[in-house]
Structure formats: C-alpha cells, structure tokens
C-alpha cells in the first residue's frame, strides 16, 4: 500500500536524507529548523520525526540522538522525493571521453567504471554481455604482406577483435578479398554459440576457401569469442573502506568479500536486464545474501541477447540523486557507442 505523507513531513524526510548523506551524523530537529528554514518550532519537527519513525521511514540509533533514514526511508526518498540533477559539465565531459579513447566495448566499460567510481566516490560495476548470445556483425580478412593477414571481428555487443595470422602461403589481395567475402556471407548474422557448433564441412568444400587461411580464420572466431555467460568489471572497491559505516572490521570484511564474488555481482546486475531505465536496490531489498549493507544503482544497456548493465555500489547512505544522474549518463554513452 502506498504511503501518504503531508507536504511538511515529505520535506522533513528529504532534508534528513540529504543531511545524513552529507554528514553521516544523525539529524536533530533543531538543526533541521535552523538549516532548512522550517517555519515551525523544533518541537513540531520532533513530532513529525516521531511520526516518520512510527511508519518505518526513520530510525533512532541512540536514545538521545537524532534520526537517520531507514532502508524504507531511502526507498520513499528515491521513489517520491528525489530530484535528479543535471550532471556537472565536467563529469559529463569526462564520461563522454571514454567513448573517444577506444572502439572496443570491454575497454570502454573498464574506463567508464573508473570514471563512474571517481565521479561518485563509490564502487562502479559493469556486467558485460555473454558472447555466446552475441551476434557476429562484421568479419574481414585483409592482406598485410607475404603470408601475413589481419582478421577483424565485430559483434553486436560492441566487441572488436583483431589478430594477425600466418596464412601458410602468400595469396593475392584479390584471393584474400574473395575468401573474406565468402566467410562474411556465411558467418555474419550468426550467434556466437551457433558458430561454435557450426559444421564446417560445407566451408571446407568451397573451392575458393583453401588451406591454413580457412582453419586460422575459424580458430580466431572460436578462440576470441569463447566466453562465459557474463563478465564483471569492478573499479573503486577501496572507496568502501573510507565510508564510516564500515569502520567495523567484520562489516567491512563482509562487504569486501561480496565485491570479490563475480557470480554474486553478476546476479545483482542481471536484475537490471529485465527492466528499462535506472533502477535501485537498497539495503534489505536485496534478494542476494551478503549485501544488505549496500545499495546498488544500475541500468541495463544493449539489445536482444547482448544486454549488459552498469552501475554503482555503495553504502545505503548514498547520494542517490547524483549517482542516478551519473549512471544514466554512463548508460547513454555506452548505448551511443554500440553498433546499431
């Protein structure tokens, strides 16, 4: 059932979330009145805070302390009160620059994770699409010199592979072009796992596909595009160490252990593949054990079977507004770089 709050209590909750995110200190009524110019007494604000606590949106860590947001309070803030800002020109420029430095999706995702981590001061994570569901979009063989050739592959997930091979004998540029065209017509448009299972006898029967060049071409496709169902990048894990929430060694170890588990991170991020837009999981909302101290803000990218995700992991005391803005921009940069 949707929780209804009057306008002042909505303002009180939003102010407590933003103050606590900024200071990591419980927020008292007097401070709220002074800092946020509420035109009521601190006693009235205390009553509002008690009411917010009664419905589970705030918690009181100590008897005499102020209040802090609960997981439910953060959720209400994100769904009802959050104002996503325009990303700063500097941060937007830095994120856009990731696309300019490389055409390979893996390299770009690594750089975007590094940038996201710096911009948000949290841990950035990315789930790269599994290649077995990706589709081969481009295949090309080019003659370099003598028996040396260059093979270039591009998938619909944005992966670019290039490798120099020894064709075993020297072919003319025209012969290379003909062989490249035949393989391109046969392979482009196929899923990678279908190429893995391809019966190559009909290819070997082609009179214009000869010798080591055919074998090496097939080897490059299979060697470079043989990858599991996910691939996870993590950057900025040490930002966790600087958060006051994790001064407790056992709590810190639990979180760092979670960040080391690729399968767990893939499970968290894969939830974004079923929905559109930026989404979040806050603390106790996680269905995966070991990450109840963390929030994830993430978004899916890509299309078809070649979908991945990028996001930010941090304490529940996260600046959701700026993190949402940064993650959305990162996804936009990735989408624009993917083959259409």
Write a structural description.
With 340 residues, the protein is an alpha+beta fold. The chain folds into three domains: 7-81, Arc Repressor Mutant, subunit A (Orthogonal Bundle), CATH 1.10.10; 89-129 and 229-337, GAF domain (Beta-Lactamase); 133-224, Enolase-like, domain 1 (2-Layer Sandwich), CATH 3.30.390.10. It has helices spanning 7-23, 29-36, 42-54, 71-81, 89-101, 105-120, 173-187, 192-196, 201-204, 211-224, 249-259, 262-270, 320-337; strands at residues 58-59, 68-69, 123-129, 136-145, 148-155, 160-166, 230-235, 279-282, 294-303, 306-315. The strands form three sheets. A five-stranded antiparallel sheet has the order 7-3-10-9-8, sandwiched between helices. Strands 4-5-6 form a three-stranded antiparallel sheet. A hairpin with a 4-residue loop joins strand 5 (148-155) and strand 6 (160-166). Helix 5 (89-101) packs parallel to helix 13. It starts with 6 loop residues before the first helix and ends with a helix. 36% of the residues are buried. The mean pLDDT is 84.
Given as residue ranges, the uncertain stretches (5+ residues, pLDDT < 50) are: none
Q: Share of helix among residues?
A: 40-55%
CATH superfamily of the largest domain: GAF domain
The total of helices stands at 13
User: How confident overall, as mean pLDDT?
Assistant: 84
Order the strands across the largest sheet as they lie in space.
7-3-10-9-8
C-alpha termini separation = 41 Å
Shape: elongated
Question: What class, by secondary structure content?
Answer: alpha+beta
Count of strand segments: 10
Top-tier CATH class of the largest domain: Alpha Beta
Main beta sheet strand tally, sense and closure: 5 strands, antiparallel
Q: Give Rg in angstroms.
A: 26 Å
> What name is given to the CATH topology of the largest domain?
Beta-Lactamase
Question: From the coordinates shown, what is the CATH architecture of the largest domain?
Answer: 2-Layer Sandwich
In percent, how much strand structure appears in the residues?
15-25%
Count of the domains: 3
């Amino acid at each position: 059932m949707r929780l209804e709050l009057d306008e002042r209590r909505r303002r009180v909750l939003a102010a407590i979330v933003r103050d606590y995110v900024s200071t990591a200190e419980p927020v008292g009524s007097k401070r709220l009145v002074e800092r946020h110019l509420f035109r009521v007494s601190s006693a009235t604000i205390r009553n509002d805070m008690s009411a917010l606590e009664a419905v589970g949106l705030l918690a009181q860590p100590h008897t005499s302390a102020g209040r802090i947001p609960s997981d439910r309070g953060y959720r209400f803030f994100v769904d009802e009160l959050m104002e996503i800002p325009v990303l700063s020109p500097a941060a937007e420029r830095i994120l856009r620059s990731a696309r300019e430095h490389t055409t390979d999706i893996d390299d770009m995702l690594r750089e975007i994770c590094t940038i996201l981590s710096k911009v948000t001061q949290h841990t950035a994570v990315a789930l790269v699409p599994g290649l077995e569901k990706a589709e081969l979009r481009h295949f090309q063989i080019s003659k370099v010199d003598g028996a040396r050739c260059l093979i270039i592959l591009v998938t619909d997930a944005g992966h670019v592979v290039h490798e120099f091979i020894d064709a075993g004998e020297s072919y003319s540029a025209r012969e290379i072009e003909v062989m490249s065209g035949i393989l391109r017509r046969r392979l482009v448009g196929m899923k990678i796992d279908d190429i893995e299972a391809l019966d190559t006898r009909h290819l070997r029967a082609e009179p214009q596909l000869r010798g080591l060049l055919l074998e090496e071409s097939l080897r490059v496709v299979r060697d470079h595009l043989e990858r599991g169902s996910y691939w996870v990048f993590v950057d900025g894990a040490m930002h966790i160490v600087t958060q006051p929430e994790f001064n407790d060694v056992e709590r810190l170890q639990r979180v760092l252990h979670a960040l080391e588990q690729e399968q767990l991170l893939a499970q968290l991020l894969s939830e974004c593949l079923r929905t559109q837009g930026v989404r979040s999981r806050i603390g106790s909302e996680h269905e995966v054990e070991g990450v109840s101290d963390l929030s994830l803000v993430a978004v899916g990218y890509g299309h078809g079977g070649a979908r991945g995700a990028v996001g930010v992991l941090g304490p529940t005391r996260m600046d959701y507004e700026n993190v949402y803005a940064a993650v959305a921009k990162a996804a936009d940069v990735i989408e624009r770089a993917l083959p259409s």
